[in-house]
Every structure is written in C-alpha cells, then in structure tokens.
Amino acid sequence: MAEALIQAAYASIGASWRERNIQTRDSLARALDGYRVRFSYHSGRIENANITYHDTRSVFEDGRIVGYTGDVRTLFEMQNLKECHESMLDAFGRRMPITEELALSFHRVLTQGTYDEERWKAGERPGEYKHGDYVVGIHDSGCAPSQVSAEMNALFAELEAVTRENILTVASYFHLAFESIHPFADGNGRCGRALMNYLLLLYDHPPVVIYNEDKLAYFGAIELWETEGDLEPMKAFLAAETVKTWKRM
C-alpha cells in the first residue's frame, strides 16, 4: 500500500515537473531556488557532520558566514557546493552531456581546497582521477587506479541508451556504478550525487535530495548493489526521496 502511494506521488511530481517545460539556465535556476540549499546541505552533511543548514544557507544567500570559527575544510566544502550548483546550471544551459571532462570539472569545483595533506603528498589533486587505492567499504577499494579512466569512459558511453522513460533506472545504475568505481581519492559521494542529479535534469526529471537522516537506507542500497547486483533498492529509494524532496515545495 505504501509503495503504491509513493509511486503515485512520484508519477504526479514527475508530470508536474515536465509541465514546467524547463529549457534554459534561468528557468532552471528559478525552479531550483528552494531546492539548492537543501540539496547542498544534505549532500555535504552525509560525509561531514560539521556542515550545518544555517551555515550552508548563509553561504548561498549571503556569500559568507559571519563569525565562523569552524574547520576551514568545512567552509571550503560549503562554498564548493554552491559553486557546483552554478556549474550545473551553466552545463544545463548548454546541454552538455556527461563526459569525462564534465565529471572532472564537477569534481574539481567540489573538492578545491579540501584535500588533506596525506592525499596531497601522495600526488592526489582535485579534478584528477585517483593515483592510489582507498578503502570505500567492507568489500573493496573501488576500481584500480590504472583502470579508472577506461571504466569511467565505458560508463559514460552507456548513457547513450538513456530516454525520458528509463531515466530513473539509468540514473540509479549510473550512481551505483560511479560509486563502485570510486574514481577519486576523495569527494566521490558529493560528485556522484551531483552528476546523478544533472543526469536527471537533462532528461526532464526533477533532481532529488538524498537526506542525511536517510543515509543508512542510501548506504544500504549501495551495499545491496555491491553484494548482490540488485538495482531495485536504489531505484525505489530515489523514487521515495524524490517524493520527499518535492512534496515540501
């Protein structure tokens, strides 16, 4: 019963979004005005408990945080999330496809000023694929560095099969495959969520907030993909989060 209600609400939200017929950067910016802070806050908060909604909103609306005394990396991450939102709007305005160039660009914006000393000394840089292996979960450390570029380009090539009708399935697969490859030394989650939402937007689907309070279900869906190759939990999770995102608007 609950699943049927979610699917009905999801279908209604999708139809309402398509009726807006969003075609330009400015029209998208207006449509996302009440969304951008929530997405950025929750996407950042999933991996950094020091990020607050108040500070994120201040960065977006005022361009600064008065009296900030927290960690400098956290400040960079919030500012970077704002800049990535602007980059996404620019890319949408030009209808840029998701390519290696775009993915590296998003990552560079999201992680500038945030790499720690250990990674920097190891030669890791924002906007570059990883040079070393980094543990990402129980089972593995993602794709080997030497294979990352080939794996990512194969993933981008698969996006040629996207249609409006299968976009939720493809976006779910893209995000799961991206996180399994784990192409960067840091910032994979933030970059993967940003690219997934950009993909949704390209195919006239509303973007989705993955809420921090739902991160256990989110991580569980990723784990089921990694252990069982099951795409459906992520697809159902994203449909439910889409409803949660847009029923508030």
Any overview of this molecule?
- It is a single chain.
- This protein has a domain at 2-23 and 97-246: Orthogonal Bundle (Fic-like fold), CATH 1.10.3290.
- 62% of the residues lie in helices and 0% in strands.
- The chain is built from 12 helices and no strands.
- It has helices spanning 2-19, 25-31, 36-45, 53-62, 72-93, 100-111, 117-121, 148-158, 167-181, 188-202, 215-228, 232-246.
- The longest helix has 22 residues, at 72-93.
- The protein is globular, with a radius of gyration of 17 Å.
Question: Tags for this entry?
Answer:
mainly alpha, Fic-like fold, 62% helix, globular
Distance between the termini: 24 Å
CATH class identity of the domain at 2-23 and 97-246: Mainly Alpha
The helicity comes to: 55-70%
* H/E element sequence: HHHHHHHHHHHH
